[in-house]
Amino acid sequence: PLVKKASWLIHIDVDEFMNIKLGDGTLEELLRSAGPAATNIAMTWRVYGHGGHDELGNADVLRTFTTCAPNYVPKPHTMWGFKTMTRNLGIYKKLSCHRPNQPVDSPLQPPKWLNGSLKDITAEAAQPGTWRSSPRTLGYDAIQLNHYALRSRSSYLIKRKRGRALHTDRTIGLNYWIRHDWNSQTDLSIQRHIPRMEAVKDSLLSDPDLRLLHDEGLAWHRARVAELREADEFAGLWTATRRTNLTDLERVAYALASDMET
């Protein structure tokens, strides 16, 4: 019922943060600027690296991870993936990982796709199966999706052990680290949202049950990292990531030259 009544639907993961750059940085501001004809907003990833952080820290993602990829990185192909805000008008039959799919034959409103700069990209983005931006459709001026795929080196070990969330038949190895560990640029734009975010977080953690779960979750992760670092496979991966300090050009070349998913 909650989904059926929603005005907009958004499919993002817990390591993806909507970074609205317009005005007061709220969804209301974004939707007001997009206008009533917009049915889809493609939020392009900006990938953030580990920034030299080895340990888990205290679950403070926005303050901790500030180094990222340049705006213009057309390769490897995963760099400009987007996630979609879609107006809940019954235009599509299915909400997939990156976008709505299976358009109906006679929609109540014609689809109008906007990019992260709120420019019309319908001609390209409305094509079935399109899930990434191109040099023609890329835009970050109004909204970007900060993608913290790695976080700390310790977080990466846990992610490697857990495995892929979507492509479960594929492993997470050194290639995954190299493709996501971009640190040549610094982008602090999302940090203006920290005071509002922390006010909500403090309110949630004032609940004793939530505080206990939060603290237990951090303790579990720290114990898990200590366990993994004793295993040969994960100790070797830890060492390999420390030795892999590539320039942007080397990172692109590596990703293009290697089998990207194994």
Main features:
single chain; 262 residues; alpha+beta; six-stranded mixed sheet; two-stranded antiparallel ribbon; 10 strands; 35% helix; globular
Describe this structure in words.
A hairpin with a 4-residue loop joins β6 (92-95) and β7. 35% of the residues lie in helices and 16% in strands. The chain is globular. The protein has ten helices and ten strands. α5 (153-162) packs across α8 (208-228). The strands form three sheets. Strands 1, 2, 3, 5, 8 and 9 form a six-stranded mixed β-sheet that branches. A two-stranded antiparallel ribbon has the order 4-10. Strands 6-7 form a two-stranded antiparallel sheet. It has 262 residues and is α+β, with helices and mostly antiparallel strands. The chain has helices spanning 2-5, 27-34, 61-64, 122-125, 153-162, 174-180, 194-205, 208-228, 232-243, 248-257, and strands spanning 8-10, 16-20, 40-47, 67-68, 82-87, 92-95, 100-103, 113-114, 143-147, 185-186.
Structural class: alpha+beta
Q: What characteristic shape results from the CA principal axes? A: globular
Distance between the termini: 40 Å
N-to-C SSE string, H for helix and E for strand? HEEHEHEEEEEHEHHEHHHH
Classify the helix fraction into a percent range.
25-40%
The low-confidence parts are none
Mean pLDDT value: 92
Number of strands: 10
Whole-angstrom Rg: 19 Å
Which SSEs are present, and which pair or pack?
Layout: H1 2-5, E1 8-10, E2 16-20, H2 27-34, E3 40-47, H3 61-64, E4 67-68, E5 82-87, E6 92-95, E7 100-103, E8 113-114, H4 122-125, E9 143-147, H5 153-162, H6 174-180, E10 185-186, H7 194-205, H8 208-228, H9 232-243, H10 248-257
Parallel strand pairs: 3-8, 3-9
Antiparallel strand pairs: 1-5, 2-9, 3-5, 4-10, 6-7
Helix pairs in contact: 5-8
